[in-house]
Design a protein that fits this description.
single chain, about 70% helix, mainly alpha
Length: about 190
Amino acid sequence: MTQEDQDNQNFDERPSKSQVKREMLALQELGKAIVELSTDRIKQLPLSEKLRDAVLLAQRTTSREGRRRQIHYVGKLMRDAPAEQIRQQMDTWANGSRQETAYLHAIERDRDRLIDDDAALTPWLDAHPDVDVQAIRSLIRAARAEHKKNQALLPGQEPQRKHYRALYQAIKAATPSPDNVPSTTATTEPEHD
């Protein structure tokens, strides 16, 4: 192979200017997304000290033009960062959050069905055979009575939610959580009535 053939082959293997520009813009957008994260999340990412400092400075910058320039600098520093690892971590946070929300909403739906409809208990018990049936029935009765009292409250009076929450926790304990839902964040119950 001649030198000219090798040069042509090397030229063909290099990315086009458009491809390089697309990659740079993608890194710029990733850097911008990192700047929008909380400080705790930023600490969890595999960033160099220089990049982490630049991100934190971008967060503190209040002028529009100064922030734009700082984010551009963050994008430039992203060229040396493990972008794929960062994307995977951010994707895990986003999907884990959606999965956790879906899990908690399913528990809420089960609770509301059990309170509203007597016929919902049998299928729910079939799906959760290890549950203490008497305890669940007792919690449902108490939650229904509590709900009925809450509907009769005057405006400004605080509704009671003790049994409502207890039923939620019992259903949650009987419902297996998805693998990637952190147990510390999945223990709180949303405030709905």
